[in-house]
Amino acid sequence: MTQKTYQVFSDMKALEQFVIDSDPIKEFESVKREINWTLVTKACEECNEPFTQKHIAQHFCENCQKKSEKRNKRESVSQRMKKNPSVAECLSCHSDFYKSAPTMYYCSECSTTGGQLVSTGEYVEVKTPIMPRPRNCVECNKKFYRTAPAMRYCKCCSPKGGELVEEEKLTSNQATKDKKLKSNVLKLVK
To answer: Which residues, at least 6 apart from 28, have a Cβ–Cβ distance to it below 8 Å?
Structure first.
């Protein structure tokens, strides 16, 4: 087997000249690829007026496209779906539910992350607050909240560390139950 020799070029002009010299019938000519999109008439997401698309990803009419401040300019698809969900059929029980995420395939009866059933009434957008998960400090093992993904120390161990988690105080009912338990255990030990 013979090994092909490689051509080395000193600059881009030499490479272009080599391609021109070695390609007399212009085989290396770049051709623009045609994409067959089916452009449809759809409603503008800002003003709800019908318009004909010029691009498959166009969501706004020409008037709203020019506006600098749109209500949902930077919203993702999932954020738009939460505000205006579509009705879909559950893959498990075949009941209708509000699909408020692109990857939602089940109703709330069949899945913990499923969509709200249509039979329960009008769609209600549920905003669940994001609760930070406490982490353990690498040095002292106390629980703290991170403000950055790489944070590993609490305020006690590092000046740039996260805030400590306050210990849950026992309510008066829990304190009386604990005292009763201790007294019962002491009676058994005696």
So the answer is: 19
The arithmetic mean of pLDDT across residues 152-163, rounded, is: 88
What is the sign of the dihedral through the CA atoms of 180, 182, 188 and 190? negative
The reported pLDDT for the residue numbered 104 is 87
Residues whose CB is less than 8 angstroms from the CB of residue 169 and which lie 6 or more positions away in sequence, other chains included: none
Is residue 96 left, alpha or beta, with left meaning phi > 0 and alpha meaning psi from -120 to 50? beta
User: In the numeric block, which tokens belong to residue 39?
Assistant: 């452009």
At 125 the three-state DSSP class reads: coil
Q: pTM of the full predicted structure?
A: 0.35
**Distance between CA 137 and CA 68 in Å, rounded?**
46
pLDDT for position 185: 47
Single out the residue of 133, 129, 159 nearest to residue 145, CA to CA. Answer: 133
- The answer to whether 177 and 163 have CB atoms below 8 angstroms apart is no
**Which pLDDT value is given to residue 170?**
40
